[in-house]
Amino acid sequence: MSEEEKLSRRTAKKNKKKKNKFKILKIVLIVILVLGITGAGAVSIMTYNIIQNTEPIDPNNIYSLLSENSFIYDDKNNLIEKVQYDGLRTNVKYQDIPSNLLNAFIAIEDKTFKEHSGFNFIRIFGAIWEGITSGDNIRGTSTITQQLARNLYLADTKSERSMDRKIKEAYYAILLEKSLTKEQILEAYLNTIYLGFGTNGVQAASQEYFSKNIEELSIAECALIAGITKNPSQYAPLKRLKNEDIDPSDPNIINIGETYTLLYDDRFKDRQLLVLKFMLEYEFITQDEYEEAVNTDMRTRVNPSFSEKGEISSYFNDKIKTDVLNALMEEYQIPEKEAHDMLYNAGLKIYSTINMDLQRIVEREFSESSNFPNINAKKDKYGNILNSENNRIMLYKYENIFNSDDAFILRSSDYEKDSSGNLILLKNKRLLFDSYKENDQIVDIKVSFHNFYKNNEGFTMTRGGRLLIPNSYKTLDSDGNVILSKQFLQDNPDFFIQEDDNYLIHKENYTLNDQVMQPQSAMVIMDPQTGEIKALVGGRNITGQRLFSRATNPTQPGSSIKPLSVYAPALDNGWTAASIIDDAPLINDEGQVWPKNWYTGFKGLVTLRYAVEQSVNVAAVKVCEAIGVDTSITYLKNLGVTSIVETGPTNDHNSAALALGGMTKGISPLEMTAAYGTLANKGVYNEPISFTRVEDKNGNIIIENVPERHVVIEEDVAFIMTDILVSGVRSGTGYRARLFDGNTNIPVAGKTGTTSNNFDAWFMGYTPYYVAGLWIGNDIDIQLSQGSAVSAELWSKIMKQVHKDLPAKNFERPSNIISATVDNKSGKLPTEISHLDPRGNNIISEYFISGTEPTEYDDIHVLANIDIFTNRLATPSCPVQFIEQRVFTKRPYPLIENPALYPQDYAYELPIYYCPLHNPSYQLYPTDPNEDLEMYPPLDQDDPDANLPPENIDDTIDDTIDDTIDEDASVDTDYPIESRMDNNKKNNNNNNDDD
Fold first, then answer.
1. Predicted TM-score of the model (pTM)
2. Is the pLDDT assigned to residue 760 strictly greater than 80?
3. What whole-number distance in Å separates Cα of residue 581 and Cα of residue 614?
């Protein structure tokens, strides 16, 4: 076959395919036409019925609709906030909107806007055809007028892709076109369209992204804003991430705030280029303007504003808005953008749980600096704050890096100049360098300040800042130094100001991150019976919105975790308040004594109640290991704790985390408060809620917020735990939190908590009315001058005001709680010998759940004959005048055989060795092989009375034992509780009130 024949056949096939396509198209068109004619009546009836039931509108009141914000009410239905996203809506007149901005929106959204009468038939049929061929819902048919109608009148159903909604939208669009001019429609559209980051309208977007008014926007900036409309979460030039989710070396970082970091996001680029392409195609801009816009470096143009709104309860209202946003997304299965539109623009009525009286009490006390401890920081000779472990600088003193005019001082030791005139910023000096790579190529170099502090009107910390040097002027040399080109110095002669051998960089050439008061604090007050949050403050001396809330972010809880993770689970698994724990040392895998108590040494045999009252670390670890760490984790999860780390090289699957609170992430004050609320609520956990219901603008309930509830422990267990915590406030480490003397009238149940080196100080407590948690600490690991003592005192100061007008009330005692008399060294029923304990006062009355009270008798106390000359067990050969019967304890637990580590009650322990002086058989009556017999004077056979032991023999023996004690084995000095109470009256800085 010749080439001509082959070509002829191919041409014939193509022509046949074309004919077939035209044939198919003709059939489809005929079918559509027939269906259109036959279905016109049905469609007309359906359309008529929908329009008949569509609410009427007044197209002339558009701008009154624009202010239809949502509202937040307190628990007494008083209005507390008109919801607006930092006030980011500013209406502008049509004549003030630049033509480039108008044309950018028309080009990308509706090129026939000036010709159509509300909707574009060609786009509608095109979308219908695409829907038929793809099987998807009808999309992409909306004109600018339809979008305006949807935003104004169909906000509640704008996510629907139904024919019903489309017909209403088209109907409203026709009404708008009949009543308004094209200019009025476009003006209203550009003032209402959502453009990301809470911005409604082009003026708000211009200010948010570029810090300028719309008349100052370049063509590239207009195209960027117009491109955002399709998907604001994707095409906004900024993104906000939580601080823990960012790479600190990311060159796109613009600002690091307390909670969030603001970053440049270039995902808008393709959309922006499409807008510019259409603007050129429709002859809205020239080729030269197009080229200039396409080549604009938008990273240098994006300059976000940082608007703040200071008002009372901003922490609480931030949480309410976050919770409502999440509830809308879950309830209606809508994306965040649409939930955001509903929250800020749909006129919702949000009924919160906040009690403004309680909120104001907390905020008022948080504003008083005298309520908080000082910083107890280690400093170098220049005043810079050092890390206590490695002596590296954590915070520079402000005056060491800035002068009195707030200019950064670049010292001669921080830089060099090369022979080409480039300025070399030296590594490991007073500036930080972070480089960011893409495809192994450095695309950005960040030059920033170290963290620093000021101590003028209070101690404040700033997490560094950044020099505003365009990336094109920066390179890295092989040693990691930053080279600033000579060209930069020429182009910016005022950036570096020479002063002697130093350079000054003035504040217009750098940015600083937020300045934050230290120490910080957080408090949550809840109604434990409902889960309603009544007050929430996430920081002190900070104003604004979207703040870092320490109330909802985890931190290490210290000993305040013990009732939740150790003791309540133990009581729920057969332990009682009278169960005996031996506060005697443990040796860890490294051969070290661990843990240590907050007081010197070890107490010995103590009850579970006493262990909680006095926050005994050893007891908590032993009980945790006895019930098992898995049990502890299970209870914490049931108590609503979500921050437990169970896997990875650093995790919480250990008693250091679960018994002592040294957790990987910690627990937030909000979750701690809800967990303690379970104890206050008779063992029933209530999920904390910030609002009770949400209504639409017509008063219809669209969300009813019922907290999740479940039983964690039984009511009787919760009562025992509560009663133990009441005694901990009455006479234990939490005594400063009492509302009344003796912890009566309205008792407080609570627990202190202090982490290592006094980094965090807690008090968690509750009354028959409220549960509240208070944390004090620094945002980085700097020691506080006081521990949990100051937290307990501030908790009491606040809660006294909260309970001021409330009547006396006690915790309800369940009917199956009984009391029984027990011996506090054995936890069992006392015997006659129990009453003879030389320490006295060891017989106590204790609460038990019926059926768990002891039935066995004390077997810890024993009688033994002692040779008073040697203070050892008497042998048959000891002279009768030397023998005395005494009461001892015989602990059921073995001790580490090291006198330096014996607990305090070892002095009352039954001796295990016999008298060495009157000993007929060392095999039958073993003696201490390490005992020094020279401590005893020789016996006088002729004068038995002379053989009586000297009056100070006990002191001699004790001194001998003391001489063997390793002083390094001791821990922090402290006093018995009574002595501490007296001492603290003299010295308010004593902070040894907890672990």
1. 0.72
2. yes
3. 13
